[in-house]
Write a structure and sequence with these properties.
Low-confidence stretches: 1-23
Strand order of the largest sheet: 4-3-2-1-10-9-8-7
Helix content: 10-25%
Radius of gyration: 19 Å
Number of helices: 3
Largest sheet: 8 strands, antiparallel
Structural class: alpha+beta
Strand content: 25-35%
Shape: elongated
Order of helices and strands: HHEHEEEEEEEEEEEE
Distance between the termini: 49 Å
Mean pLDDT: 80
Number of strands: 13
């Protein structure tokens, strides 16, 4: 037991807190637009390719059918990372994707990783397609459905109803006429 605790402590010191935080990211299913980071990629990948994370399956709707992925956490119904491989789709060669949720963006809104297509690997970034009520607060949303801390304060267009608080943090600043007051929990409330 002591050996295990010592090993865990060493991992924390060597890996740092960001690695541990990355392991705890749980994101809901949704659609993403994948784009290549480099200019050597095919036009189709530079202009954007749809990636769909379902309930345990990954799909490239214009290219490849749904396949299972071990990056899906069944008990919570959420994703920790994306790892999928299609043996044959859009031609004779295999297609694969490996990506993690970016920690420098608003939670669960961006994936960074690699896509293997036509026998070549490309660095890619994928941005979530915003949908009100999908369980992710996107940049243009003040809220996203019912918030357990504040109740039903969100309308169908993800705007806070009058008199309701708006959560704020580094990714979601308050309007110019409000201040972000930090609470005892993570983030704060616009006042």
């Amino acid at each position: 037991m002591t050996t295990r605790l010592t090993a865990l402590a060493a991992l924390v010191l060597l890996a740092g807190p960001s690695t541990l935080a990355a392991a705890k990211v749980l994101c809901p299913p949704g659609d993403f637009v994948v784009r290549a980071v480099d200019d050597r990629a095919p036009e189709r990948l530079r202009s954007g390719l749809r990636l769909r994370l379902g309930t345990g399956s990954v799909e490239l709707p214009d290219l490849c059918p749904p396949v299972g992925s071990d990056g899906f956490h069944r008990p919570t119904g959420r994703w920790t990372q994306v790892r999928a491989r299609w043996r044959r789709c859009a031609g004779p060669r295999a297609v694969s994707v490996r990506a993690r949720f970016a920690l420098d963006a608003a939670p669960c809104t961006r994936l960074d990783g690699r896509l293997r297509l036509r026998g070549r690997r490309f660095r890619v970034g994928a941005d979530r397609v915003p949908v009100c009520g999908d369980g992710v607060r996107d940049a243009a949303e003040e809220c996203d459905g019912v918030d357990v801390r504040y109740g039903d304060c969100c309308d169908g267009e993800c705007r806070a109803l009058p008199g309701c608080p708006v959560r704020c943090d580094a990714h979601f600043p308050c309007a110019s006429d409000a201040d972000c007051v930090v609470t005892c929990r993570v983030g704060g409330v616009c006042v």
